[in-house]
Amino acid sequence: MDTTTRSSSESSQNSEQGLLNSYEKSEGHPRYATRKIRRAPWGVILPWSLCVVLLVAIVVQARIIRIRSATPSTSFWGTRELEIVKREVAPNKKVVRFTGGLRYNSSKQLYREIDRTVPDYTGKPTEEITAAWHDLITTTDIFLTKAEIEEIIANGGTFANLPHKDDVLYTDPFVGLYQAVPTVFHDLHCLDKVRRGIYLDYYSEDDTEIFWPHIEHCLDTIRQSIMCHADMTPIPEAYTDFKPSGHLEPIFQIEHTCRDFEAIQKWAKGRDALDEKVWRKNAERLKLDTKN
């Protein structure tokens, strides 16, 4: 046989075999079609898997939001503050522009700016000023139930760490409820006591042997409370020609972000333990709520 012919024939056979192998490895050959069938579902499974993961993430996030909304705001309330007030008073803040700033007039005399739209709490004593302070701190002591005291102790609150080991918590002998004084109302009481001390001639009934120890206690308590809350709202200083000692004048009538004091005061009034007009009703309601 001609060598050239045989080589040509072998080449043709090799070419055909190569095409056959190529066909077998192609996606159309039955032997490799199974691989395609096995691989194809991932194109469907992967998007659905991602959808499931996303759905689970949404459900988990929604649950976290619900838990946080049901839990007292730790950024609003302090860890030592009343547990019950965290649940019953909304953690709302409001913007309040402070009043009563000091200014110098063109005669270089210092005066206090007075806002007539709000009660005046300072100045020479009058019946109106005395009444304004009374309305501000009409509530000092509040009732707390046994369950509320136990909750405070369980959470490591103030009643769990009394400074004197022999101290026994007071319970009202008539209604059997505990009593406490929210710090804000004690601070206001102390501030009013210092104010009255400036005008002892007017408030002569305060001039007793316990008055000055009381004043010293109040001054130190107010100092500590101010340092504890440490308001960092900046007070601007403006240029002035009227100030005798320099050219800088603080602008005190600025906006501060504050807790809703009226809401806190209203809540406390519902637990007032001293006001003869309401304490019995408050006690009965709290005792009834405890039974329910």
TrEMBL record:
Pathway in which the depicted protein is active: Mycotoxin biosynthesis
TM segment ranges: 40-60
Residue ranges with Low complexity bias: 7-17
Region (Disordered): 1-27
Record-level GO BP terms: mycotoxin biosynthetic process
Keywords assigned by UniProt, alphabetized: Membrane, Transmembrane, Transmembrane helix
Tagged with keyword Transmembrane: yes
Record flagged with keyword Acetylation: no
InterPro entries per the UniProt record, alphabetical: UstYa-like
Pfam family, one: UstYa
Stated family: Belongs to the ustYa family.
Protein name listed in UniProt: Uncharacterized protein
